[in-house]
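Objective 1.3, modelling of assemblies. Example input:
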Amino acid sequence: MKTYIKYLLFAIFVGWMGVVHYIGAEKSVACADIIFQFSFSGFHFDIGTIPELLRYYFGIILFQVFFGTYIYRHFTSASVYYFSRCSNRIQWFLKESVFLFVYVMIYVVLTIGSGIFIVNMTAGVTFQHIDKVLLFYYVLFSALWLYAITLTVNILAIILDSSRSFMVVGGFQMFCMAVFSFFDIKGDVGQWLLENNHFLLFQWNPVFNLCIPWHSSKIEEVNKKINWFQIPFDLNWSAFYFVLLAVVSIIVGCIIVKKIEFVTVNKEGGDA
Amino acid sequence: MWRCAKMQMSVLMKRKSAVIVYFLLLIIVMNNYFSNLNQYFGWDVSEMYHPVKILFLATYSRYHVSFLQYFPLLVVIPAAFCFLNDRNTRELIFIQSRVGSKNYYFGTAIAVFLVTMAVFSIPFLIEIPLNYFVYPTKAIGEPSNVALYEDVYISSVKNYFFSTFYAYYPYLYSVFCILIFGAVAGILAVFAYTISTFAFVKFKIIVFLPVYVLLQCLNLIEINYIHYLQMFDGSEKNGVGYVILCLLLVVFSISILAVKSRKDTL
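Predicted structure (tokens):
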């Protein structure tokens, strides 16, 4: 447990990394701008801005690597001993999943919290009342996505091993980021999305769902601040989508943990 | 040491991970080659771009940036898990007792470097003769459509690494750049392998971190590794800093492995 608590300190580093260019700014920075930075607003659907996307995705990858073995570690050494004392494996899995979610929440809150705190100490932060809404959706989206994906890494690791599992999940995430490069987007992105019927692909891409400023909102004031592409991409849709992903990963996890035989051979030793 | 390196290389090259990454790279290179064929079919020689400028790793290729964003994670897959595999299957004990600890660590590092370099250079090298024989060698066009005598173009060419070499021998220069790319991939893989020898690395998933964190930290100080890895990049770069960083990684890896090889891990 102590090992994993230690990893949460990386959230402060990730938070600092996200706001490093705001440190020492002459004018105070709007809280909404910091939230937008953390939700990939620097990415503009062109290849040149991929590093910007990767920079803010760094925290998500870091968490997956550290916590990608949080549940899986019980299936490596001494798993027979461990599970012989565990009468209800589904209950055990659900308990571990709840702990993982707590870690995810702390990590996400610590990341954005430290980012805002650092900017506030060095340049000052201006707050508006809609920031609460933006912050709520940022934490909700990031936490649910991080939870679903980290749980998937753990579940797949039970079947494959930790490295292969990360290759699959990490590869999927990178694919989600790179998917736009297969199309030749010219002119207004919003118009392109709607005219060419690519909106469905955009809407179901989980990485794009993380970007708050691309969404629309029923709250007029929030909608004015976000909705950069002028598309009907509701914040609540993404919330529902991420909840769905998290629930699916829990259900799949329950099935796999229930069906898996006790691991007598350590999978970590196989072909990489 | 060389005996151990040879043995490890023969094992690594047969591993599914190395074979899969090799063929994956070959597929994306061939995809680039055939899409270029499709696009430039029937073009006049006076309009046609220089064949090396449409290679996969060149700045103007459409998909290479997507590939380079995967690069920090891909680079460790072919060989960097070598130590953890040996440790977890207990083969480490047999190999070390047979060849010695020092020979094992350094021999494996050489094997990791060579295998990664081969995987990350051979598929790209294959594209050069294919382009050479298919496209007119007299074609000298620039994909950015900037005229060759314009100041913008001349100043961007000056920013290439070893730009004089490029001006005289563009094909040899491409081979050289791809080999450098492979060597950098090899150095990064050895760096990840070195980190994997630490006791805190209990799971293979951690091996993905060192290279990824390193390249992201460079990104943090406004050094985009993509500019350094792609060919014909016209942006300003710090060549000396690039070489120093690579040397530092090599020195770091050798020092750590030297310390590890003196310790009795059996």
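Residues 2-263 of chain A form one domain.
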